[in-house]
Specification:
Length: about 200
């Protein structure tokens, strides 16, 4: 839960920037709904870029003056973005289950399960992307290391995944306004939870 405490402090101290991040992320989600076929890849790449920009801002207490660091991660971004696309579909399916006419005793556990799986994959994939920056390893090796590391620590990841699953579920009744708070918190927790080995 230490990463949640750090995320909360980050949000509280920098609430204006946090809400700005949340608004951009929410806008990306809204725009993706109008993009046929490639919508999941668009939202995946958009959130990953925003995650990396947020990581930079947390590390340096300022936004990047140029996007050179993103250019260096272009190949890794593309690979992870494609791998993350099914997760975007999974999250969309979880919302679909919540909106279905099934009774809550059936729809809520099913949607929570889908959210948890989707969020777990987000943690793994973003941690791999972060490692390509911090340790200058190729994306294939980083994915392997991130998967092994996160699966070994699955117990510590279970609670964050469950909390975010509940938050995303509750968001259903906020007309998606909750995403403005949920996304920055997610970005912060994922960043603070990532292995710090060799961080620059």
């Amino acid at each position: 839960m230490n990463s949640f405490k750090q995320a909360y402090i980050q949000f509280k101290i920098n609430w204006k920037e946090s809400l700005f991040i949340g608004c951009i992320a929410s806008l990306l989600v809204m725009l993706a709904q109008f993009i046929p076929v490639l919508g999941p890849i668009f939202i995946s790449l958009g959130l990953l870029v925003l995650q990396l920009l947020t990581n930079f801002w947390i590390r340096h207490s300022s936004w990047p003056k140029d996007l050179d660091f993103l250019k260096k991660s272009a190949v890794s971004l593309l690979v992870v973005g494609v791998l993350l696309a099914p997760t975007s579909i999974l999250i969309g399916s979880a919302y679909g289950v919540l909106q279905s006419p099934q009774d809550l005793m059936t729809s809520v556990p099913t949607s929570l399960g889908l959210f948890i799986i989707g969020i777990l994959f987000y943690f793994i994939l973003v941690h791999a992307l972060i490692q390509t920056e911090r340790r200058s390893v190729n994306i294939i090796k980083a994915l392997d290391q991130a998967a092994l590391s996160n699966l070994r620590n699955i117990k510590s990841l279970a609670l964050p995944c469950l909390i975010f699953a509940v938050l995303f579920s509750v968001n259903q009744w906020t007309y998606s306004l909750g995403l403005i708070v949920i996304f920055p918190l997610l970005f912060y927790v994922v960043y603070f939870d990532a292995p710090k080995n060799g961080e620059s």
